[in-house]
């Protein structure tokens, strides 16, 4: 449970902007700032389950993107290595690969942070206004998929117990798996008939569906959204007039000595701040309570 | 005016007549119990009161609710005024969290958010389930699931509740809690309740009226007292009475002074009857405790499975079984009892080899064949016809042995059906035959009598005993204490992940005060080790 509550639409808007920006702003100063910011944010929000594994996966993906890009893209002036024919591995292609990989990792980080603050119920709430049936199906899937997977595990356990005397072989294995799937599916179908009856008998489709959830747009949402929109517009102007985006081909238009200290970069940094502010405020409340409990 | 009325009602689902000439009137506020063998038409009868669930077939006569023909009720009224609870707690759940599930019907009828939240607040307070509102339904126990299902009907403020064997999948404590809530709803809000139920001992004290159904017709319908008195003379329905009433009848045949009194249906009433004739009743002293080793016939036999220091867990925080030592002799019939989460299923899965212990050793005799049956027999089926399920891998036709088993369990008539279309009891038998054709030495059954009616349960027990006398070793887990008391030789009570007691059922139940059979609770002060009807008949010479 959290005490900082923004309307889900506010969160969605904010995180969508961050995701898009992670991809558009290729200037390393911008992406690094975004990276630092998002890591701080995740740290405050609490590191989600399975996060480390996922980060590792994305790292490996990032490295492979870099390698593949350097092998198949031959644009760029700074030739490093002769590959074949007229094709060279270029410095620009490597750098471009690194930047793309980095923005992908950024997008993943933004998404994990989003998952921490917006529950799927809130997401579906936004969704259900426009697509009530689709959102219901998603809720049902959320219940059925884990149930089916535990069942399948149980069925496979039983099958391997019953057929342990059988010769193991590829064909037998496939046969066994097919049998397990048949059992699972017919079981699920059989039960879904009862589920359908249960839905029907509880008035499904008698009227237009409503929702038990309600979220109000508060003053804080208005302030948050206006702040976000203003700083985003300024940052986008930075894309057009400033140097938030860099060119790679034929030659990289960036050097680390050009620190982009202008209004655009400042507004980009500002864009990153409000959520950190809100989250650390929340964290402080909990920290205070925890120390109080600890002392008493 | 009656709330529900069946007039000359018949229902034919070709080629069979499921319900025949039903005439039934139920007043508002009645709590009516429907009893009868599986396939007697109980569920069909209830389904005809719920417009959305009316089965396909030919109908004669009519059914009305508040004088309106059920078929003419408008959708909204049918959804809100009449609630239907199904047998299996799992498959009637639609969504993922408790609060979403309870809100589901209200969202369906298009109620504004504010009102939905009011109704949920009110209902969850009544049920005391506020603390599980945001839980995932998959994490709940069976009893909690069924409560959530009931709650999700009650938010609609129904006038009539139809319940189709709602507690058949629950353990005794959970089912008693569930029935108690029904009783409150009936008494405090005058909600009319019609219920199909097999746990007769628990429900009889609560109901006003009882309907006995057989082959689609009503055999008896009256208030509880009258029906009980009629049913005791009936060869079939005498099985469908609470144990307390059976004892009461036996006593009133012998002692004329209570002949014309009311028949007891609850322990409290039963005790009063005993008090009245106290001077005539012989009181037996408490016996010395007997241990399993003293004269246990199986201890000379060969040990076929033994374990020492077994541990099992899925996570460090929750160790399910701790330090279990156990040995199984050939030819035993063991009942394993214990509360929910005591580790019964895990224990038998470890014995069978479905699970591996995380610590400790299990040794099984060489070449021993173990058959394991799940609580839900469906998991064992993957074919379209029962007969295909019963063929071994390389067989084209049923072998003689299989045919004999089919005859033994009396299911010849099912061979060409789809296993999914069979009733729970029939599925259980098919699964057992399927296990038996591999000629196992040990048969392990997880809750085999769940959802059985009393007569099927009796027949099933006889069949198991027959198999046992042919040398089969049987282990069952059960919540049905009376079943264990009647038919098992040895009983193991699990508690807190360990074997708490391992002894004769008689010893265990006569030691217990609460976790024991209804008969024992009734006669404890007179016959401390009387745990089944037979004991009482013998001791009091009835």
What would your notes on this structure say?
The complex is a heterodimer of chains A (296) and B (542). Chain A has 296 residues and is mostly helical. Chain A has 2 domains: 8-119 and 222-295, no CATH class; 125-201, no CATH class. In chain A, 72% of the residues lie in helices and 3% in strands. Chain A is built from 9 helices and 2 strands; from the N terminus they run H-H-H-E-E-H-H-H-H-H-H. Chain A has helices at residues 8-24, 28-45, 51-72, 91-117, 120-130, 132-162, 170-201, 219-241, 263-295, and strands at 79-84, 87-90. In chain A, strands 1-2 form a two-stranded antiparallel sheet. In chain A, strand 1 and strand 2 form a beta hairpin. Chain B is α/β, with parallel strands linked by helices. Chain B folds into 2 domains: 4-237, 3-Layer(aba) Sandwich (Rossmann fold); 292-540, Rossmann fold (3-Layer(aba) Sandwich), CATH 3.40.50. Chain B is built from 20 helices and 19 strands. In chain B, helix 5 (142-154) packs parallel to helix 6 and helix 14 packs antiparallel against helix 15 (424-436). Chain B is globular and about 70 Å long. Chain B starts with a strand and ends with a helix. At the A-B interface, helix 6 and helix 7 of A face helix 2, helix 3 and helix 4 of B.
């Amino acid at each position: 449970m959290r005490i900082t509550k923004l309307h889900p639409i506010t969160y969605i808007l904010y995180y969508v902007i961050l995701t898009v920006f992670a991809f558009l702003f290729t200037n390393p100063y911008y992406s690094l700032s975004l990276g630092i910011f998002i890591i701080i944010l995740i740290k405050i929000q609490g590191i989600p389950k399975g996060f480390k594994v996922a980060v590792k996966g994305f790292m490996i993906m990032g490295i492979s993107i870099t390698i593949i890009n350097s092998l198949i893209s031959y644009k760029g002036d700074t030739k490093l290595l002769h590959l074949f024919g007229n094709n060279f591995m270029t410095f620009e292609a490597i750098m471009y690969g690194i930047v793309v990989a980095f923005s992908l990792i950024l997008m993943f980080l933004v998404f994990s942070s989003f998952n921490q603050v917006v529950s799927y119920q809130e997401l579906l709430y936004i969704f259900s206004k426009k697509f009530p049936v689709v959102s219901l199906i998603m809720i049902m899937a959320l219940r059925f998929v884990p149930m089916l997977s535990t069942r399948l595990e149980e069925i496979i356990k039983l099958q391997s117990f019953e057929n342990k005397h059988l010769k193991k072989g590829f064909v037998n294995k496939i046969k066994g798996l097919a049998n397990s799937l048949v059992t699972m599916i017919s079981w699920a179908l059989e039960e879904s008939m009862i589920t359908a009856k249960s839905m029907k008998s509880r008035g499904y489709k008698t009227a237009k569906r409503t929702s038990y959830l309600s979220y109000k747009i508060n003053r804080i949402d208005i302030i948050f959204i206006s702040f976000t929109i203003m700083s985003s517009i300024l940052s986008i102007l930075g894309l057009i007039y400033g140097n938030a985006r860099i060119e790679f081909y034929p030659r990289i238009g960036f050097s680390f000595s050009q620190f982009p200290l202008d209004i655009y970069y400042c507004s980009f940094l500002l864009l990153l701040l409000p959520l950190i502010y809100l989250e650390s405020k929340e964290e402080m409340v909990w920290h205070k309570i925890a120390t109080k409990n600890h002392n008493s | 005016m009656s709330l529900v009325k069946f007039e000359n009602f018949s229902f034919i689902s070709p080629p069979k007549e499921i319900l025949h000439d039903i005439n039934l009137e139920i007043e508002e506020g009645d709590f009516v119990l429907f009893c009868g063998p599986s396939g007697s038409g109980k569920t069909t009868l209830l389904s005809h009161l719920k417009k959305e669930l009316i089965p396909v077939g030919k109908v004669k006569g009519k059914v009305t609710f508040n004088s309106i023909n059920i078929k003419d009720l408008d959708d909204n009224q049918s959804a809100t005024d009449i609630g239907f609870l199904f047998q299996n707690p799992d498959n009637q759940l639609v969504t993922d969290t408790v609060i979403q599930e309870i809100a589901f019907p209200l969202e369906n009828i298009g109620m504004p958010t504010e009102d939905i939240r009011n109704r949920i607040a009110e209902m969850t307070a009544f049920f005391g389930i506020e603390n599980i509102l945001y839980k995932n339904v998959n994490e709940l126990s069976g009893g909690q699931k069924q409560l959530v299902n009931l709650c999700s009907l009650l938010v609609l403020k129904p006038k009539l509740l139809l319940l189709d064997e709602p507690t058949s999948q629950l353990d005794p404590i959970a089912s008693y809690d569930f029935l108690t809530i029904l009783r409150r709803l009936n008494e405090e809000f005058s909600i009319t309740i019609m219920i199909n139920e097999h746990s007769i001992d628990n429900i009889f004290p609560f109901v006003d009226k009882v309907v006995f159904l057989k082959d689609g017709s009503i055999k008896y319908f009256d208030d509880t007292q009258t029906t009980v008195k009629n049913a005791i003379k009936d060869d079939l329905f005498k099985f469908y009475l609470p144990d307390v009433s059976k004892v009461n009848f036996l006593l009133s045949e012998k002692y004329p002074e209570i002949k014309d009194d009311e028949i007891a249906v609850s322990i409290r009433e039963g005790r009063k009857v005993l008090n009245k004739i106290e001077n005539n009743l012989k009181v037996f002293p408490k016996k010395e405790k007997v241990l399993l080793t003293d004269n246990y016939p199986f201890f000379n036999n060969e040990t076929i499975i033994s374990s020492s220091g077994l541990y099992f867990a899925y996570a460090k925080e929750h160790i399910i079984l701790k330090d279990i030592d156990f040995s199984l002799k050939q030819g035993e019939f063991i009942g394993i009892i214990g509360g929910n989460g005591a580790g019964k299923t895990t224990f038998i899965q470890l014995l069978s080899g479905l699970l591996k212990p995380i610590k400790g050793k299990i040794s099984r005799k060489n070449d021993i064949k173990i058959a394991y049956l799940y609580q839900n027999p469906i998991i064992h089926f993957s074919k379209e016809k029962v007969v295909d399920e019963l063929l071994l891998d390389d067989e084209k036709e049923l072998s003689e042995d299989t045919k004999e088993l089919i005859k033994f369990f009396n299911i010849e008539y099912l061979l060409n059906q789809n296993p999914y279309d069979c009733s729970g009891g029939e599925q259980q038998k098919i699964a057992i035959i399927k296990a038996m054709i591999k000629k196992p030495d040990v048969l392990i059954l997880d809750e085999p009598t769940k959802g059985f009616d009393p007569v099927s349960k009796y027949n099933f027990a006889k069949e198991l005993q027959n198999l046992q006398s042919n040398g089969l070793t049987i282990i069952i887990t059960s919540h049905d204490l009376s079943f264990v008391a009647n038919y098992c030789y040895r009983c193991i009570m699990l508690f807190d992940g360990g074997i708490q007691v391992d002894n004769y059922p008689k010893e265990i139940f006569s030691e217990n005060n609460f976790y024991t059979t209804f008969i024992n609770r009734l006669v404890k002060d007179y016959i401390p080790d009387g745990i089944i009807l037979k004991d009482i008949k013998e001791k009091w010479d009835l």
